[in-house]
Structure formats: structure tokens, C-alpha cells
Design goal:
GO terms for molecular function: ATP binding. This protein is an alpha+beta fold. Helices cover about 45% and strands about 20% of the residues.
Length: about 170
Amino acid sequence: MAGLEGVEQSRQRSNASAVRLTAALEDEQGLKALELYGNPAEGDVILPSMPESAREARRLAQYVVIRFWGFSPQVAEHTVLLVSELVGNAVRHTGARSFGLRMHRRRGWIRVEVRDPSRGLPCLMPVHELDTTGRGLFLVDKLSDRWGADLLPRGKITWFEMRVADR
């Protein structure tokens, strides 16, 4: 075993470097998305209703949660997952050309809204062990503290809220 201590330490240093590089790349991609589409914490960000837009919505959400609001990577991870589910539903089920993403923060809470022109309300369906689809709202229901949909004169807003520890 003599002499192997340096190998483990070297591996730990390279893992830390990889984590920093990944975080820097995610920051850069989030900043690019912010410059291209706008800041969902300041107003509605309109994205095309395409599967690729889920990636941009995730980048925007992560950037806002970590860089603007200063929350932990775990809060960002849950937010990003739930944003992805709501955006996926808007893209798959509404037939819209675009959707809006908006993020709000108030003391102790984060609220994320996805606006689309469909008045069809989301429905939480039972999930079975072998199901390969239909888990989106189940995840939203389990990971958020509250969620729902508000009908608008033209369309709806589907939203979720999570409690967060303010710094």
C-alpha cells in the first residue's frame, strides 16, 4: 500500500477540477440562454414549443436559482427537474407554438410558472411501477410543496411552489 496515497489524492483533485469545469460550463450556457431569451425572474420568457426548449428552460432556471437568488445546488436540481416536467407537458400536450416561463421569489418560497395557450388542465394520474411515461406531474406533486393550474382568458398557467430557506 505504500506509495498509493498520492494516487487517491490526485484522483480527488481531478474530480474537483471536473466539478468546477462542469459548473463553469453550466454557468456559461445559462448566461447565454439568459442573453438570448431574457430573465424569467424579471418577466415572461417566451420559448418555442419544441423539445429542445426544455434544455433552455432548465438552463435559465438553474442560472436564476443559483446565480441570482443564491440558493443551493439541491434547490436548483429540484427546480430544474420540475421546470423540465412542466415544459415537457406544455410542449407535448398543448399544440402551442410557444410557451412562457416565469419565476418568482418571495420570502421562503420559489414559484415557477409555465404559461401556454391551451385551456386543457393538467391531470395527476396514478403511476404504476412499470409505467414508462406519465410521471411528470407525479414528480411535481412529490417534490413541490404546492402546484396547480390557473385558467386565463386565453390559456393557462401551470405552476409549482417550493419552500426554501432564505439566507
